[in-house]
UniProtKB/TrEMBL annotation:
Keywords: Acyltransferase, Pyridoxal phosphate, Transferase. It is an enzyme of class 2 (transferase). Belongs to the class-II pyridoxal-phosphate-dependent aminotransferase family. It comes from Heyndrickxia acidicola. Residues 43-384 form the Aminotransferase class I/classII large domain. It comes from the Bacteria. Its cofactor is pyridoxal 5'-phosphate. The keyword Secreted does not apply. PROSITE patterns: AA_TRANSFER_CLASS_2. One of its GO terms (molecular function) is glycine C-acetyltransferase activity. CDD domains: KBL_like. This is Glycine C-acetyltransferase.
């Protein structure tokens, strides 16, 4: 028998969400996560995945993953510190360090886990963290877990950051101060002002932490946002995920050897959660190798991104100020945005709406993430559907 208190908590809150239309019904994908996906039996052009380079279904990655399963099995068997560290994990970490231009790297089971692990292993209640107001939820939760004082600065506002860094430093209240930012902000596709952040960090002796989940494989010809700005030796924590452009699953920190040594003895998801599987690890390693060998997929990603942006802009849509292939189509009103996305999906384009509280009120948008795997024909079809639905709903005149 379940608790009465739990039952009433769940019923009240679920009913409220459903009444307000805020309960997110999850679509079930009945195919591989490629440029075209099957949902409810319908083939849809997929503009909603983070599989930026199309590597999630790449034959070369599937091949090495199958081989690893045959040789090593399907599970790592233990946490990394007991006997879950396979030679395959070390190879991945060496490759990630090379990729990011750092002394060392450490892999985690997800990008989310990585932020929970890394921030709280270094920061504590005697410290402060300056955090961009639009940072990802996993950064916010990682900061909270550390118990450090969290000081939010206005999005990419260097004057606000400098003012708050100065105040924090001069207060004398904190042992260590960190500044933390996404490398690429996934809702608008804008790139963090890393040169500005590094200047301020140098002025006030801040620890620097960049989560480049949406930048790795995308910006800097694939090498990521830190390398894009040539700042690999200036950023203390370079965070990445293996689940987006890399196409697999997992997360990592790249940095100096002593930082990685510390994370190996103090970061809790590393110490207390089972290691990534052999198939994940070899597929991710191969993906990083492919990125380092050639910019072909990265070039195609940008070409497709620019093509889609141009097409939507020419139709008259507001596509914001994205600096990456992420292409928001800003509708504004929340209900209208949701209806717009629903109609796109009915017409064969899987592009999801993103509304308040994920983005500010009145800036509801349908977010498009073209990938290297889309063909021009797919993008043309998507643009034609946007035109049809835009006219039908009076968004385009
Ligand atoms: N950091 C950022 C900035 C992200 O956008 C995301 C994913 N949405 C994550 C971390 C989490 O990564 P993962 O999906 O690998 O857990």
């Amino acid at each position: 028998m379940s608790s009465n208190a739990l039952e009433s908590f769940l019923n009240e809150n679920l009913n409220e969400l459903r009444d307000k239309g805020l309960y997110n019904e999850i679509d079930i994908v009945e195919s591989a996560n490629g440029p075209v996906i099957k949902i409810n039996g319908n083939q849809l052009i997929n503009l909603s995945s983070n599989n930026y380079l199309g590597l999630a279904t790449d034959e070369r990655l599937k091949e090495v993953a199958l081989q690893a399963i045959k040789e090593y099995g399907v599970g790592a068997g233990a946490v990394r510190t007991i006997n879950g560290t396979l030679d395959l994990h070390i190879k991945l970490e060496e490759k990630l360090a090379e990729f990011k231009g750092t002394e060392a790297a450490i892999a985690y089971q997800s990008g989310f886990n990585c932020n929970m692990a890394a921030i709280s292993a270094v920061m504590d209640k005697n410290d402060a963290i300056l955090s961009d107001e639009l940072n990802h939820a996993s950064i916010i939760d990682g900061c909270r877990l550390s118990k450090a004082k969290i000081i939010r600065f206005n999005h990419s506002d260097m004057d606000d950051l400098r003012k708050k860094a100065k105040e924090a430093k001069e207060s004398g209240l904190y042992n260590k101060i960190m500044v933390i930012t996404d490398g690429v902000f996934s809702m608008d596709g804008d790139i963090a002002n890393l040169p500005g952040i590094i200047d301020i960090a140098e002025e006030f002796d801040l620890i620097t932490y960049v989560d480049d989940a949406h930048g790795s494989g995308v910006t800097g010809k694939g090498a990521g946002t830190v390398k894009h700005f040539g700042l690999a030796d200036k950023v203390d924590f370079q965070i990445g995920t293996l689940s987006k452009a890399i196409g697999v699953v997992g997360g990592y920190v790249a940095g100096k050897q002593n930082l990685i040594d510390w994370l190996k003895v103090r970061s809790r998801p590393f110490l207390f959660s089972t290691a990534l599987t052999p198939a994940d690890v070899v597929a991710a390693t191969r993906a990083v190798e492919l990125l380092m060998e050639s910019t072909e997929l990265n070039d195609r990603l940008w070409e497709n991104g620019n093509y889609l942006k141009k097409g939507l802009k020419e139709l008259g849509f507001n596509i914001g100020e994205s600096e990456t292939p992420i292409t928001p189509c800003i509708i504004g009103d929340e209900k209208k945005t949701q209806l717009f996305s629903k109609r796109l999906i009915e017409e064969g384009v899987y592009a999801k709406s993103i509304v308040f509280p994920t983005v500010p009120q009145g800036t509801g948008r349908v977010r498009n993430m073209p990938t290297a795997a889309h063909t021009k024909e797919m993008l043309d079809k998507a643009i034609a559907v946007y035109e049809k639905v835009g006219k039908e709903m009076g968004i385009l005149v």
